[in-house]
Amino acid sequence: MTMTTLRSTISPFLAVHILLYGLLAVSKAAFLNAQIAFVSAFLILLGSLYSYRKLVQRNLENETAIHQEDLVEKIDDPYDLYSESEEEVEEEKPLKDVIKEEKARLKANKATVRNVSKSTPALLSVYRLVPYGILVLGFIALKNNNMLSLWYFLPGLAAGIVAGFLSGKALFASR
């Protein structure tokens, strides 16, 4: 990892962290609310980016990446009326047959156990579950000690999301 990547990864975290220390002038509770929310949101975002990056890399290595049609083309021409390939024009089928074919096509597109199991490692990654645990336990601890203030907690979450995105972009997009 180069020094520039390291600097651009740590900079958002440190910048927001320094701003959070200014909340100590307001109160200790305000600082703790913003701190717990910021750190947990930051770690959740980094964990999510990392686990999905690993999932995509694993799929590319195994060549299981699904080739998807161009989304814009699918929206513009959902029934493939303007395709360049010249196909034989089929005779009109009875309505019952058309309905059966459409039902079969829709069933094939539904999430199957196999498709869900491919994305489960990214969903149940330790890199995501531990930060969510920190968020929930921190929230409960603040609430039980009558220190919870959403006026400081929610901006802390927002700051964690922004800093986590910027750090994750610098850390994972540069490779």
Summarize the structure.
The protein is mostly helical.
> What's the oligomerization state?
single chain
Helix content: over 70%
Query: Which stretches are poorly predicted, pLDDT < 50 over at least 5 residues?
Result: none
Radius of gyration: 24 Å
Biggest sheet features: none
Taking all residues together, what is the mean pLDDT?
A: 79
The domain count comes to 1
Transmembrane segments: 35-52, 122-142, 148-172
Protein name: SoxR reducing system RseC family protein
Keywords: Membrane, Transmembrane, Transmembrane helix
Molecular structure report:
- With 175 residues, this protein is mostly helical.
- The protein has one domain.
- Helix 1 runs antiparallel to helix 2 and helix 1 runs antiparallel to helix 7.
- It is elongated, with a radius of gyration of 24 Å.
- It starts with a helix and ends with a helix.
- The mean pLDDT is 79.
- Keywords: Membrane, Transmembrane, Transmembrane helix.
- It comes from Sulfurimonas diazotrophicus.
- This is SoxR reducing system RseC family protein.
